[in-house]
């Protein structure tokens, strides 16, 4: 199935309508420090990724990802969820959808967003919500996947970019990078190597999605 973003119809003299590729418009959603968002931003700024970040949204007031966005001059929005910890109430998720739609976002990029996504977002952006997870899915879904990998004694783990569905880390896999475990690894050292891999993988996947749908 194809997504149809990145195209703009322009009526020209002579009456033909020509399609010009335009940069893909991203909406970023995160709860934490935003290092993946930072990597995406650097790829855009260096010309490696033809995209624009239209809005950065967080469910955590004061999250580092919001500071990063403000420093870069990107609009931000904070969601206040009074009832639940692991998801948004339907009315707050509808607010999220309105903000993304107002920003005319083509692709919703979850970058360290710590809640399960529900129908309002998935129905408004079908096959247009992606996530990065710190393991080789389907292995080690859920929290602290690097610690799960270490405790399981596997030889390699990694990171995965996938489409988001209503499950936890269950959506269709788009791309993965392997990260071998090394002797003496601690949860912290392994997590740091996985994050370094994420910072290459996420911009590369977004670039590929943009290219495929031109
Ligand atoms: C990443 O490790 C990602 O895999 C997970 O959340 C973390 C977010 O880190 N989904 P950051 O906020 O991008 O630094």
What would you note in describing this structure?
The protein is an alpha/beta fold and 214 residues long. The protein has one domain: Formyl transferase, N-terminal domain (Rossmann fold), CATH 3.40.50. The chain contains six helices and nine strands. The strands form two sheets. A seven-stranded mixed beta sheet has the order 5-4-3-6-7-8-9, sandwiched between helices. Helix 1 crosses helix 6. About 5% of the residues have low confidence. Bound molecules: 5-O-phosphono-beta-D-ribofuranosylamine. 5-O-phosphono-beta-D-ribofuranosylamine binds next to helix 1, strand 7 and helix 6.
Question: What's the SSE blueprint?
Answer:
Blueprint: E1 7-11, E2 17-21, E3 24-29, H1 35-45, E4 51-58, H2 64-71, E5 76-78, H3 90-102, E6 107-110, H4 119-124, E7 129-133, H5 145-152, E8 156-163, E9 173-180, H6 187-212
Helix pairs in contact: 1-6
Which terms summarize this structure?
single chain; 214 residues; alpha/beta; Rossmann fold; seven-stranded mixed beta sheet; two-stranded antiparallel ribbon; globular; binds 5-O-phosphono-beta-D-ribofuranosylamine
Helix count from the secondary structure assignment: 6
Query: Mean pLDDT, rounded to whole units?
Result: 91
State the CATH superfamily name.
Answer: Formyl transferase, N-terminal domain
Count of discrete structural domains? 1
CATH architecture heading: 3-Layer(aba) Sandwich
- What percentage of amino acids are in beta strands? 15-25%
What is the topology, as strand order, of the major beta sheet? 5-4-3-6-7-8-9
CATH fold node name: Rossmann fold
Q: Outline the low-pLDDT stretches.
A: 6-15
Largest sheet report:
7 strands, mixed
Which distinct ligands sit in these coordinates? Answer: 5-O-phosphono-beta-D-ribofuranosylamine
The gross shape turns out to be globular
Helix content range of the residues, please? 25-40%
Helix and strand composition category: alpha/beta
